[in-house]
Recover the amino acids of this structure.
């Protein structure tokens, strides 16, 4: 490795650090500390993506998790990414676990500050031929219109963190099977450091720009009508918004319990990333939520503890983003399926059905989250 390559990577880290220290918003002390963690995760993920990259022998990379957050990552998902190219044939094999959803998306590029890539394919495992023992095999290639820079993203999504189990996945490029990987050279390793430098800067630029396209253009303290996720997984429906809450305020979000395998809500930071979902209740799936007798789920978003089961903690973020997701749907959602949002004073909170929890019961919920994350997450 040449000193020049190292210098370029050091320069990229320094530039990324300046971008984090001077974000396009007025950051609180909590957000500045999180920004430095976000930078560390971004460095880690960029190195991983650049050095795990192999177009001839692609593998499934797990670049997004609780230690490397990005793109309003879903707390309920395990993400896998692989780089594809034109003229190649691939085989994905695996065993279906018991997660709520397993979805596949092939894009004609990667996210950037200039825009989101197009989707070449997006579907869930219901379109696969899954054997009685849970195994499956999917071959794909030229018929999808792959090109250099195409990416495969797999999301394994969990609703009940305590009972659903992961499956297994393996990707192989068939036309290079049996061909040994090339030995590294100084030039090839230098190129990987240059790629990591480019990825690092691009990653931060992208997630500064992305919420401006889709989220912050909406009125504050509102959520959109559910629709196919903009710039993301087209087989998923979502509702997005952003909030601004004083310490004595709350948002009550009311949404029907949908007839689908996966439905969830989450809070995100202004870094456009998930907040601490392992040790705080910053997200809830339908399985983790209290559903009222009238079939509605009522969430309370606030900084102070309202003493209810469906509390979403702000964790010191007076501003942030919100997102609801629905997956494995049998029909398109409409406004009648979407959330209603009410801004209130926390002192005026009166829910129509009791969902009160004691501090001891809430601590037990957090303990369950810690175990749930540990049993499924990889990093």
């Amino acid at each position: 490795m040449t000193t020049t390559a190292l210098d370029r990577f050091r320069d990229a880290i320094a530039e990324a650090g300046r971008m984090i220290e001077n974000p396009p918003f007025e950051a609180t002390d909590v957000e500045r500390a999180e920004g430095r963690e976000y930078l560390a995760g971004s460095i880690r993920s960029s190195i991983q993506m650049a050095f795990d990259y192999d177009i001839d022998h692609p593998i499934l990379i797990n670049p997004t998790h609780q230690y490397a957050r990005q793109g309003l990552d879903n707390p309920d998902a395990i993400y896998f990414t692989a780089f594809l190219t034109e003229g190649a044939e691939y085989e994905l094999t695996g065993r279906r676990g018991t997660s709520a959803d397993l979805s596949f998306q092939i894009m004609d590029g990667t996210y950037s500050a200039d825009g989101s890539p197009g989707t070449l394919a997006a579907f869930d495992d219901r379109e696969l031929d899954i054997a009685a023992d849970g195994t499956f095999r999917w071959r794909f290639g030229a018929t999808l219109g792959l090109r250099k820079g195409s990416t495969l993203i797999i999301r394994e999504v969990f609703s009940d963190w305590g009972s659903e189990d992961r499956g297994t996945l393996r990707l192989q490029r068939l036309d290079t099977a049996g061909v040994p990987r090339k030995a590294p050279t100084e030039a090839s390793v230098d190129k990987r450091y240059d790629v990591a430098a480019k990825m690092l800067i691009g990653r931060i630029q992208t997630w500064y720009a992305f919420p401006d396209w889709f989220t912050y253009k909406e009125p504050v303290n509102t959520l959109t009508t559910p629709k196919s996720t903009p710039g993301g997984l087209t087989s998923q429906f979502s509702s997005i918004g952003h909030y601004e809450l004083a310490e004595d305020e709350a948002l009550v979000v009311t949404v029907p319990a949908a007839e689908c395998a996966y439905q969830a809500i989450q809070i995100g930071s202004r870094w456009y990333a998930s907040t601490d979902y392992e040790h705080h209740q910053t997200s809830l799936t339908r399985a983790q939520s209290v559903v009222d007798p009238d079939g509605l789920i009522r969430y309370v978003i606030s900084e102070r503890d309202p003493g209810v089961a469906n509390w979403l903690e702000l964790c010191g973020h007076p501003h942030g983003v919100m997102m609801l997701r629905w997956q494995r749907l049998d029909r398109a959602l409409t406004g009648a399926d979407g959330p209603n949002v009410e801004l209130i004073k926390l002192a005026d909170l009166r829910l129509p059905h009791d969902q009160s929890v004691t501090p001891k019961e809430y601590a037990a919920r957090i303990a369950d989250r810690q175990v749930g994350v540990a049993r499924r997450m990889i990093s």
Notes: The chain has two domains: 3-211, 214-376. Residues 3-211 form one domain. The mean pLDDT is 95.
